[in-house]
From TrEMBL:
One of its GO terms (molecular function) is peptidoglycan L,D-transpeptidase activity. Residues 52-134 form the Penicillin binding protein A dimerisation domain. It comes from Leucobacter chromiiresistens. One of its GO terms (cellular component) is plasma membrane. Transmembrane segments: none annotated. SUPFAM superfamilies: beta-lactamase/transpeptidase-like, Penicillin binding protein dimerisation domain. Residues 157-473 form the Penicillin-binding protein transpeptidase domain. Pfam families: PBP_dimer_2 (PF21922), Transpeptidase (PF00905). InterPro entries: Beta-lactam/transpept, Beta-lactam/transpept-like, PBP_dimer_sf, PBPA_dimer, PCN-bd_Tpept. This is Penicillin-binding protein. GO terms for biological process: cell wall organization. It comes from the Bacteria.
Length: 495
């Protein structure tokens, strides 16, 4: 009997050890993560009994809690909801949390470790619990300019503006959008109805096109990365000349590549790299990159952030720049086609890195966390993300981008601002054909920065479907997104 008893005793003892370990992990190690989980309905219900901290833009609340007479005590409200939805997200009783509401939930709800002693003191003193507020990096003038420019024209797409020297996100817009107030009431039936309508909407208003969702082919704005890779490796300089045919057969293929103009890149027998960027020509860029290592451009893209995990603190979907499997794919990928896909945030990071002398700063959306007694609890500082190119290479690419704006033939000339040196690059990405063989509407891009000598803002704009139905799904890449980008840069520079 002793042997069976010993086995049972050891088994019970082992089970107690496992139980003790599990309880310890849940109560102490994983407690914060479990509380922050958007699917934790108990934490969400309890949080409605706390005055949740505000989300601030330049000191003004764009998300805040208001007392109610119902059992939930508070309701979450949003000022200029659709304009700021891409950064605030929503805080919903039945649908959970998104955006900064989710990423900064512990601070906003007052449940984080940093507020542990504050919670104890408030309990002892009979003070009602209250969450901390977060101050964002958003520039309200830039955000309004971006949102207005996109919505007044009915554009589907996104705008991101960064401060090149710090990585601060000055504007983050995604259209068409939604009003978070529709998902934040204390009426479950209304929330569910509204969410279903938004979720079933073909225009996908809940999708944050600036940092996630269905990524876009970057088209010719990706040529900035191809040019940077060539110059940094010594394969080319802005004055390097390439053959200048109107058509070019892709290597190891019968497919023919053309420039967007369906003609040569300028009038000469040769075209320089500078000329190719100014006129956004495909053939010289493709010629150049097919003579380089197949990994050269994807490796440079990775240094700028493609394929890298990033949170701002909201999670960002990584952009894609896979290694091509043939020289024909190298050529197509070098002009932002093939399997290359990008978020507007990623393209803004490319421009910001070029503007900042080759150093890409990590983008961030939260400037500081402020306690209910107005003490700064946390402050976020600029952090270097990467240095993909040297200052010399960055200056060379920046100069070509400036030529795209200040030369009469430059496709980015509509980005010109009186009295300001502006650098810019346009892009038009093809989206294939429909079932009948007709070309699908293009994806239009603009990216740039200003002033060139002392950059204050870098911007990326994407407009899906060639400008949308309001424009007959037509519009040159040098027109629609460039006008939006110019308005955002002007808004920042005018302050």
């Amino acid at each position: 009997m002793n042997k069976p008893l010993k086995l049972i005793t050891r088994a019970v003892f082992g089970m107690f050890i496992v139980l003790f370990f599990s309880v310890t992990m849940i109560q102490f190690v994983q407690a914060d993560d479990l509380r922050a989980n958007a699917l934790n309905s108990r934490a969400l219900m309890n949080s409605y009994k706390v005055e949740r901290g505000a989300i601030l833009v330049d000191g003004d609340p764009v998300a805040f809690s208001t007392p109610t007479d119902d059992d939930f005590q508070y309701v979450r409200q949003y000022a200029n909801g659709p304009m700021y939805a891409p950064l605030t997200g929503y805080f919903s009783r039945t649908q959970g949390m998104t955006g900064l509401e989710a990423a900064m939930n512990q601070d906003l709800s007052g449940s984080g470790n940093a507020q542990f002693f504050t919670r104890i003191m408030n309990t002892l003193n009979g003070v009602e619990p209250q969450g901390s507020s977060i101050e964002t990096t958003i520039d309200p003038a830039a955000q309004e300019a971006a949102y207005t420019a996109m919505t007044e024209n009915g554009f589907e797409g996104a705008v991101v503006a960064l401060e090149p020297k710090t990585g601060k996100i000055l504007a983050l817009t995604s259209t068409p959008g939604f009003d978070p107030n529709a998902l934040s009431s204390n009426n479950d039936a209304d929330i569910i109805t509204n969410y279903r309508q938004l979720n079933d909407d073909p225009s996908q208003p809940l999708q944050n096109r600036a940092i996630a969702g269905d990524l876009y082919p970057p088209g010719s704005v990706y040529k900035l990365i191809s040019a940077a890779a060539a110059i940094e490796s010594g394969a080319a300089t802005p004055s390097t000349e390439f053959d200048n045919p109107a058509q070019w057969t892709l290597p190891q293929s019968s497919s023919v590549l053309q420039n967007a103009s369906r003609s040569t890149c300028g009038s000469g027998d040769k075209a320089t790299l500078d000329q190719a960027l100014v006129l956004s020509c495909n053939i010289p860029i493709a010629e150049m990159t097919t003579k380089m290592d197949d990994n050269a451009v994807p490796d440079m893209a990775a240094k700028f952030g493609f394929g890298q995990d990033l949170a701002i603190p909201t999670p960002v979907t990584p952009s894609q720049s896979p290694v091509p499997e043939s020289k024909a794919q190298v050529a197509l990928a070098s002009i932002g086609q093939q399997d290359v896909r990008a978020t507007p945030l990623q393209i803004a990071m490319v421009s910001a890195g070029i503007a900042n002398g080759g150093t890409v700063m990590k983008p961030y959306l939260v400037d500081k966390v402020i306690t209910p007694d107005l003490t700064v609890e946390k402050e976020f500082s600029p952090e270097q993300f990467s240095q993909p190119v040297s200052e010399k290479t960055a200056d060379a690419v920046a100069s070509m981008m400036e030529h795209g704006v200040n030369k009469p033939e430059g496709l980015a000339q509509n980005a010109a601002i009186d009295g300001v040196r502006v650098a810019g690059k346009t892009g038009t990405a093809e989206n294939g054909t429909d079932a009948d063989g007709n070309d699908l509407p293009f994806t239009l891009w603009f990216t740039g920065f200003a002033p060139v000598e002392d950059p204050e803002v870098a911007v990326a704009v994407v407009i899906a479907d060639g400008g949308g139905a309001n424009f007959g799904n037509e519009g040159g890449s040098f027109e629609l997104p460039t006008a939006v980008g110019k308005r955002v840069m002007e808004a920042v520079l005018s302050e």
